[in-house]
Structure formats: C-alpha cells, structure tokens
Amino acid sequence: MPELRRRWRTLVLANHPDKLTHLALGELETARSAAAFSSAMAAFEAVDAFYAEHFAQKQNAAPRADT
Q1: Total tally of structural domains belonging to the chain
Q2: Helix axis angle, 27-61 relative to 2-15, nearest 10°?
Q3: 6 is a domain residue
C-alpha cells in the first residue's frame, strides 16, 4: 500500500487543479488534467475503501487475546 500511495500522490500533485492555475494551459490540457485528477481520486478512494473493509473484517475475525 505505501507504494500505491506514493504513486497516487505523485499523479495527484502533477494534475491538481490548484497547482496548474498559474500555467498557461489550453482548455484541452486543463480538461485532461482535471480528468486524470478525478480518476486518480476515485481510484484511490475505491482501493482505500476496499482495504479498510478487508482489514476491518480481518480484525473482527481474529481471536481476542483477552477472552
């Protein structure tokens, strides 16, 4: 997961709308960057939700040491 987060962060920072406002990009490049940013955010949220659910189920299934 750390490698995924590092690559996701690199992609998001390269395409973040706030980071690109000072550049004189055309409408097409701005739209491509916005689409890449949105896709990266949606993909990471889906993966993060999967991991959160998977590890929550794993923790619930693990035997407790205090019982």
Answers
A1: 1
A2: 160
A3: yes
